[in-house]
Amino acid sequence: RTDAASATGDMMLLTLLLIAAAAEEIPPLIRVAPHFYGAIGDNSITITATATPTTLPLGDSLVYTLTIDHARNPAAIRRPVLATDEFTAVEVDDRDVDGVRSFSYRLTPRSAGSLRVPSVRFDYYMPEAAESRRLRTRYTEGITIDVTAPAKPTINVPERFRTVWNGAGNSWRPSLLTWVTLAMVAAAMTTVYVIVWRRRNPQGVRLARLLRTRSVRRALSRVDHDPLAALAGYLQERFGVQCSTPAETAQRLELRHVSRVLCDRVEHLLRDGDALRFGGANVNNLPARVRDVIHDLEAA
What we know:
Helix content is 43%, strand content 22%. By secondary structure, it is of the alpha+beta class.
């Protein structure tokens, strides 16, 4: 019996040594598998999922635990990834008690309703299996969590504010004459305000005309020397349009309610100016054309 027990012990030791040697030789492709967390075992390995509680109000959280049992190397198992869009997951605990490895997560629901904690895939390595079947897979069951909407806060309203007015008692209702009088007072106040503003700002009405006259005068004084610069300055001062490309300048003028015909003329002038400036093209009567466009823009 002693010899038999010794032989049995030797066989168990040899088996453990073979398993340990195989564990050290886990193929690289298995080591980098997305759901492999370092577990080694046989067909008896299990992974279970629990959640406490399964019913909670929105704003509270629950504890979700993954438990791996019958693994040969529980201390070497890494924490599985818990992927969920319906909960905010925070890692809170991991344990190794009597060869049982567990990982806990604190889950906070993002919305109310019947939410689902998804199934977790867990791959492990089985060294004694055929080489092509050594990567085994286990799945946990998905868990349904019922999340209730938070209770609406109650407000204690005094009794006097909850009494519905039934129309009894004296009540004042404005007559038609009152409404007409209020309208006339509002119109009179508006008229007085406009008169006072005009007296305090006598140049306000003429300011736009004066600005227009100055911009035209300044542009025409430069048109013979530098027609393109004169046109660009006029458009900037008169319309607030800064010349960029000919097409963009025409588009911005059209947004300011300038007719399409005048926009096209401005665009052609700017294109001819670019051809003269960069390409050395021969452009005739450019100052005269710029002067005509400015006059037509003012007359429009």
